[in-house]
Amino acid sequence: MRCEHLENPLGVEAVAPRLSWKILCEDPGRRGIRQTAYQIQVGTSRAALEADQPDLWDSGKVQSDRSVLVPYAGKALRSAQRCFWRVRVWDEARQPSPWSGVAEWTMGLLQPSDWQARWIGRERPAKPRSLAGSSWIWTGEKGQSQAKRWFQASLELEEAPKRAELLLTADDRFEAYLDGREVARTKSTGTGEDWRTVVRVDLSGRIGRGRHTLRIKVQNDGGPAGLIGRLTADGKDLLVTDASWRWAENEEGLAEGKAAKVVGPYGSEPWGEVGPDPEPPAPAPMLRKEFEAKPGLRRALVFCSGIGYNVLTLNGRPADDRVLDPPFTRYDRRVLYTVRDVTALVRPGRNAIGIVLGNGFLNVPSRDAWNFERAPWREPPMARLQLLLEYADGTTQIVATDGSWRLGEGPWRWDAVRQGEIYDARMEIPGWDEPGFDDTGWRKAAEVPGPKGKTAALRSRPCRVTETLRPKSVREVKPGVFVFDLGQNIAGWVRFRVRGPEGAQVRLLLGEKLHPDGTVDRSNLSGLVFDPYFSEVRYTLRGGDAETFESAFAYYGFQYVQVEGWPGVPSLDDLEGRVVHTDFPRAGDVRSIPLFDRIQNATLWSYRSNFVGIPTDCPHREKNGWTGDAHLATEQALFNWDNAAGYLKWL
């Protein structure tokens, strides 16, 4: 029995939820079974249905063979309402079946006014300056784009500024000189598109009272040619590239240089909105709140949107087993929340909620070929959470995020969904998400503007760890360098157990190929992410007893794990692969000769690895939801997996 394609879902926002069921027969020899009619009953409790008194809807006997996506047509439903339902059918002989077992669904928060929670997180940093207001300039020569040219501008200051900053880039590359001394040059990325990275230079203390001259040498290798820059001091523009600049073929010619020509304003094609390398993200924020619960709790529901990803605990225990939650959306259009039943975790008296936030796709920190670092939705991680406590006496209580929550930092020092994680176990904080913890050293969380997108409940199954793989082998390929082979290419991460001295650092590199010398080869994966980090974990030991780690805010596509810095020699028992994807069940299978079976197995693994919240083209290099890849995979996918809800979420 399904509601909106899911079993007993929490957070249904459809005002007329659609109900589906499958007819089962205990007699394996019976043939020709078909439904000729159905009856659905929906009530506010199991007892109401068992007493044959459905107080929300009774469809009566409906002459129809329909059993898929039958819309609810009863009383209007309210936010967070729990609904129980059952169904019976009449067969081809017009005989009724027994009533089915009782299934249920719970409504989401249907109106914006139902949210009492505020968005919270760190205080927002000042937005970095951009090149807006500057222009791309060049020489105006015909047929001379492939050339080396010099550009110059001067300024006069009556007093020395306290702070000065230069933003600069050029197609293809540049060197910048202030009063004859080099102050900046193009940052080489090895991509052939170095102009995409605007170089930011702090010139505070280098610019004083008097006259200054800025000279830029630009080398263009053919194709579009241009220079764009901005020099600011104490928040005001001193220089922007425009037609007042002079140019010459060599530095000596600048004394009588010619006027530069404006090619186009900042943001114009073919360059678009280039910008500086983004600032590295701060450590993962840890948010906590204590509250009192009364005796007689009947149900506790958490409505949580912690973006990019969140790890939610209550009284020191995980709220559930979902991971990488919520799945990626365009946060300027739609922001997902998930609903979790935490009744078993709340106890009478003092309780504590904890949330750790990762960057996910909300705050991609490094440049890549798809410009995620300049996404219109990009913001630091934030959370909005509302805990609803319903008591047996009919009263309710709400605990919601606001400025009274406390914020701290712990072991998650850095995370990026394509690059990986840096974790320092020495900075773990025992008991931080339990009642009674002394958080006087933590600061208040800031109430922040939320994302622009519309809030919506997750309509699909969550991501989970669905399988754990023991490595097939481990070998030392170089002194102190070990490579584990899982024997299967997966999407997910590893869990490892290690013991060693405090401060020892273990580095894991994950990939799907090997170099001839046996080390992990990621050359086919990392070229579209312009960052020295890619698919790796860096872990600092706290020392003492054995310690265990697995990722929380990044996932990888890999078969091989290269381990460096391990104290001693790792064994096959020290590391295991954790398979992660949207947790859809199997729908079917086909088996034949061994060759076809191998093709089918590869198909199953490929699909699981390419549906971590959304359908993707690959789980390592891109993790992008290209529509063509998803479309071509859909037909085989739905024969093999029950994932209609996943596609509804994605579309």
Question: What is shown here, in short?
Answer:
The protein has 651 residues and is mostly beta strands. Helix content is 6%, strand content 41%.
Polypeptide structure, described:
With 651 residues, the chain is mainly beta. The chain has 5 domains: 2-109, Immunoglobulins (Immunoglobulin-like), CATH 2.60.40; 120-126 and 279-407 and 439-449, Sandwich (Jelly Rolls); 135-273, Jelly Rolls, CATH 2.60.120; 464-582, Jelly Rolls (Sandwich), CATH 2.60.120.260; 594-650, no CATH class. It is built from 4 helices and 48 strands. The strands form 9 sheets. Strands 28, 34, 35, 39, 40, 41, 42, 45, 46, 47 and 48 form an 11-stranded mixed sheet that branches. Strands 10, 25, 29, 31, 32, 37 and 38 form a 7-stranded mixed sheet that branches. The longest helix has 16 residues, at 594-609. It starts with a strand and ends with a helix. The mean pLDDT is 94.
The helix content, as a percent range, equals under 10%
- Count of helix runs: 4
CATH topology of the largest domain: Jelly Rolls
Q: How many E strands? A: 48
| CATH classification class of the largest domain | Mainly Beta
| The named CATH superfamily of the largest domain | Galactose-binding domain-like
Which percent band covers the strand fraction?
35-45%
Secondary-structure content class: mainly beta
Number of domains: 5
Low-confidence stretches: none
Shape: globular
First-residue to last-residue Cα separation: 24 Å
Q: Mind telling me the C-alpha Rg?
A: 30 Å
Looking at the chains present, what oligomeric state does this protein adopt? single chain
